[in-house]
Amino acid sequence: MPPRILVFAGSIRTGAFSGKLAACAAHELAQQGAEVTRIDLGDYLLPLMNEDLERDEGIPQNALRLARQIAGHHGFLVATPEYNHSIPPLLKNALDWVSRVKRDGERPLRPFENKVAALCSSSVGQFAGIRAINHLRAVLVACGVEVTSVQCSVGHGGEAFEEDGTLKDERSRKTLTKVAQSLIFHARTVAALETN
Asked: Which segment of the chain is annotated as a signal peptide (predicted)?
């Protein structure tokens, strides 16, 4: 059985470099045999994380929907942009809300439990989102996610992609291939645990 991999970007801006990179990653994962689901965080918009809101109104439905998506896959790949040397608020807020999900109705739900993630980043500058990807890694590790060591960062995002959305740079393409290989390898281990 092929591992199930969820892919999403940390930005919902039209033409976002992270969205283009997520599309490249989804294609590469599928080429290597993964069962890929691509989602858009714009379909899971959430209020700012607030424990008073959680207490008074409960977990927002979109947080529960996103938690179900993550829980339903063996691993996930996030492509993040860099905002002020860190991850964007949209992505951080989504992860914070999902980390609060403990139940789905009557049954327990731990969306990040036994999950593996791979990370990619992109930016307009030469640093390619490296600072953001390091912050994202720290957040996911804090949530209990195993994060693969192989990562792909694409700089000068405005010139990095062909008109068809593929990466121009051969080095970036090869790195993305390695990211996909590593994620699939680790996700297969998760899948094997699921069947035992």
From this structure: none
